[in-house]
Design goal:
The complex is a heterodimer of chains A (245) and B (247). Chain A has 245 residues and is mostly helical. Chain A contains ten helices and no strands. The longest helix of chain A has 38 residues. Chain B contains eight helices and ten strands. A six-stranded mixed β-sheet of chain B has the order 6-7-8-3-9-10, with helices on both faces. A four-stranded antiparallel β-sheet of chain B has the order 2-1-4-5, with helices on one face. In chain B, α5 runs parallel beside α6. Chain B is globular. Classes of the chains: A mainly alpha (245), B alpha/beta (247). Chains A and B meet through α7 and α8 of A and β6 and α3 of B.
Amino acid sequence: MERSNWISLLIALTFIAIWEFACGWFSVPDFILPAPSEILKTTVLKTSLLLPHAGVTALEIIMGIFLSLLVAVPLATVMFACPSIERALSPFLVASQAVPVFALAPLLVIWLGYGLASKVLMAAIIIFFPITVSLLEGYKNCDREYAVFFDLMGAGSWKKLRLLYWPWALPYFFSGLRVGVTVATIGAVIGEWVGAQRGLGYLMIQANARLQVSLVFAAIVWLSAMGLALWVFVGFLERKVIYWK
Amino acid sequence: MLSVSGLTKKFEDLTVMEGFDLTVRRGGFTTLIGPSGCGKSTLFDVLTGVFPRDGGRISWLGEDVPDLMGRAAYMQQKDLLLPWFSLIDNALLPAKIAGDSENWSREKASALFNRLGLHDFEDYMPQKVSGGMRQRCALVRTLMFEHELVLLDEPISSLDAITRRSLQGLLLLLQSEFNKTILMITHDIEEALLMSDELLVLTPMPMRIRERFVLEMPKPGRSSNPELLKIKEHVLEELEGDLDGTI
């Protein structure tokens, strides 16, 4: 392990140790702030309760990512291919970021119901922007000399996109996707808070109402682990796909 | 034969060339040399249609053409190899774009790799090999175009002296073995004298041909030819004169 990793581990362990010690020393009740050992116990012992909810949230996140990709990739490509469309859509894209996405959650629940759809859409909306913008940026960043060279070879638009622009933009796309997958968790959980029957967000609201704070923390641990796993998976995928870097 | 007459190109107030004429014999190797910034590269951009021209005619093999895009192979200082393709796949790019048969093209590219000393390196990624090898691969890619006319824009000037020398020999194969008609621009007088059949010395902007030398002596052994040394001195004096004028 590298020196920096050791330092990170040391900081984390120190923080947890102080937390654990402080809870015992000040006799903080579990329903205010449970000690890390208590949270760990709940995280492990309540696996059978947490797992089905985590499965639902994971499904919402993954479907949200796919839905977002399904719209973001063609949209960024069309915007790149037709600058007039880009100019026309850019103000809307920027304005969409000015809308607080969380405020949309209650509306989505009204429109799409308490099931998966509203949460999937919530996750998709939240990651759509970073993916679209970074892919578009990647296309635009292609060296003009290469584009001219492709023209000189008589390459049509499709071949230029497939053989030049798309591979060129891939590193940008993946950096957008990495940002996206980490915030997708937020989208799904907010959706579940507002109205759901299953999922870790739903579980958190239920546990909160019953002052089962260690269960709330256990759900947060599971959510963080899922976000981290997705982040690691995208990194792995990136290294496989962008094999030339 | 490539024939260019009355070519004019202006960028707002800047006249890069006006009424520029040029003829390249079929199967010949013509080199344009001129002071830096005289508009050599713009000439190629206009010939290939990257920039529209403001006047003049271009004809290739006796037929007027709008430009040379899709009619000429092009090789420049930057090798423009794609980092996501292996060397052989980079060489196959013109075939992929033209939609040629994969097997036949691969055989042809493989044979060229062998001929240019790149065998065993077909599956290497460009970032893993030297600048000289990358440029050799770019040369194979140039040869993969089914075009008789080849435009070379300072193709080897970014390489070190030793690599450049071996690449010069390989560039000559374009003419001697593959019967290409070549138009090269360079600022390296020695390179021009060693390789060309015809040397055209250009003026600063607005660019025109100042002097023309026909070099009929055999290419091997040119480096010590006294006549060429005289031409070299003469051209260098002219180019340095231009430089003095600009300082």
